[in-house]
Design goal:
The structure is a single chain. Helices cover 4% and strands 58% of the residues. β5 and β6 form a beta hairpin.
Length: 166
């Protein structure tokens, strides 16, 4: 919804997206229902077709910590994602919101997600973070709210986090 309030604030928050929150601060300065003041500095760093993509983000509130994320295709069809921080992130929280209806299980640093069409998605989560599953709202369209699972990882003094999806 576009009306000011808690739902709008949550939908715009860093924790509602598949990214990393540094030191409990937002990546953008969101205010009112439609306003953004300070914005993150985001750049596409490198694209190697059929191989990898790398981007960088310095959040509005945390410009001292540059976050680089690299997506790479690994042998066997797996997807490897690496998050690197040029300065150690004092407190980092990584979020991976899942589609409604998916029911992950967590065993240490491995999430297993049965897929509706059959098969299983296995995610080797960054070992530099402590993981849990939370429930959070998802807004697929105006006036509609669904609940979904979110994988949440937290850690201190994080310099690197590696993911592997297979």
């Amino acid at each position: 919804e576009y009306a000011p309030g808690a739902k709008r604030e949550l939908a715009r928050a860093t924790r509602s997206h598949a990214t990393v929150e540094i030191d409990g601060r937002e990546q953008a300065e969101c205010w009112a229902a439609h306003r953004i003041g300070g914005r993150p500095d985001v750049a596409l760093v490198r694209v190697a077709p059929n191989e990898s993509v790398e981007a960088a983000c310095a959040g509005w509130a945390t410009p001292e910590v540059l976050h680089r994320r690299r997506f790479a295709l690994a042998p066997g069809g797996a997807l490897a994602i690496s998050d690197d921080f040029d300065a150690r992130a004092p407190r980092a929280r990584a979020f991976l919101p899942l589609a409604p209806g998916l029911a992950p299980t967590l065993a240490g640093h491995v999430a297993t997600i049965p897929l509706r069409a059959g098969g299983v998605l296995r995610i080797a989560l960054p070992q530099t973070l402590a993981w849990r599953i939370e429930r959070a709202p998802y807004y697929p369209e105006f006036g509609r709210e669904e609940e979904r699972a979110v994988l949440v990882g937290e850690g201190s003094n994080v310099a690197r986090a590696e993911w592997r999806f297979s």
